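Hi all, a correction to my earlier message: I attached the wrong file for cyclin-dependent kinase. Here's the right sequence:
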Amino acid sequence: MIDNIDQLPPYYPGIHGCRSVEEFHCINRVEEGTYGVVYRAKDKRTGETVALKRLKMEKEKEGFPITSLREISSLLKVKHENIVTVREIVVGSNMDKIYLVMDFVEHDLKSLMETMKKPFLLGEVKTLMLQLLRAVAHLHDNWILHRDLKTSNLLLSHKGVLKIGDFGLAREYGSPLKEYTSIVVTLWYRAPELLLQAPQYSFPIDNWSVGCIFGEFVTMRPLFQGKSEIDQLNIIFKELGTPNEKIWPGYSELALVKKMTFIEFPYNSLHNRIGHKLGKSGFDLINRFLTYCPERRITADEALRHEFFTESPLPVDPAMFPTWPAKSEGCQHHRKAQSPKAPSGGKQFQRNQLDADEDRLIPNSKSSNKVVDQPQSSGFPYERSKFEKRIQHSILNKAPSLEFQK
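and the right structure:
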């Protein structure tokens, strides 16, 4: 229960003095994800084009979702050129009208790769990977797990700048490790320790996802496209070989390994698929990301020092990246040769995305749900806010370490 509502912590950028969404003109809807809808909009005050992400909320009486608090607190805690920037929070008339105002970025990489006629050059792959690794290293240095790295959550600007977005599953972690839900990370990018129901996990789950993304940059298709958790494991084992105690100490003690017997695939056949595209050092790097044992898996910091990035062809200057038409510049999006959407776990994923020790913060019971009818001149439903303090207090009370990195 929230109390002492008037005794708020000091001002934090992006929270205090929330504006109304009426101060933005909606241009078009860009995308809808698990945790919210994204619009392209124009700030009436400055004329700038921005991205407005409306957070998915339940009924106000159920409180402020912990996933939204995590996303806001994570994005306010980290500041990096390769992580999407939250400029401010704008609000509406009740608890289900909350938007994050972010820098507008033209592409998400999944949609872009589906429409590209030619694959990325190896030098371009290196540039994308360097930017991704710098962002992931920064998150891990700040004790944040993203927990949903995939190409649809990576944005690319016309200037060749990659940014990690969608922090709806992000959370802080520490030492000693706690037990978190294993139903995180979209299935095709989910680390084997999660699929095998390991009771604890840490930053290596993000690094496995980075390895999957690396392979996708090279092949233009997801590496492991399972239809269920078991199917995903079988596909991984068939490609990389079935793990054992020698290469993964503690493997035989994992919950799912005790319950099931997996087919024995003795060899790693990934080289036959992508080795010729990556060269010796590139294949070594992706193998280090796709290492079964989490403790032996390469970190983002270590990967940044890998020889793959210093040998020919060298990484391309981001400013020299080609440009592509942005799908968000029109209201209708046409895609060719679209790959199937990665399974996310369905209803079970939605139910279990909150860790067992956390649920929802309870809002002030005196708040009003009344919505005033007004013209929809902005392109959004008419919205006004009288609960800024409650949102600010909820965020700061739940995540007290909200400061920008210097």
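Sorry for the mix-up. The two ends are 33 Å apart (CA to CA).
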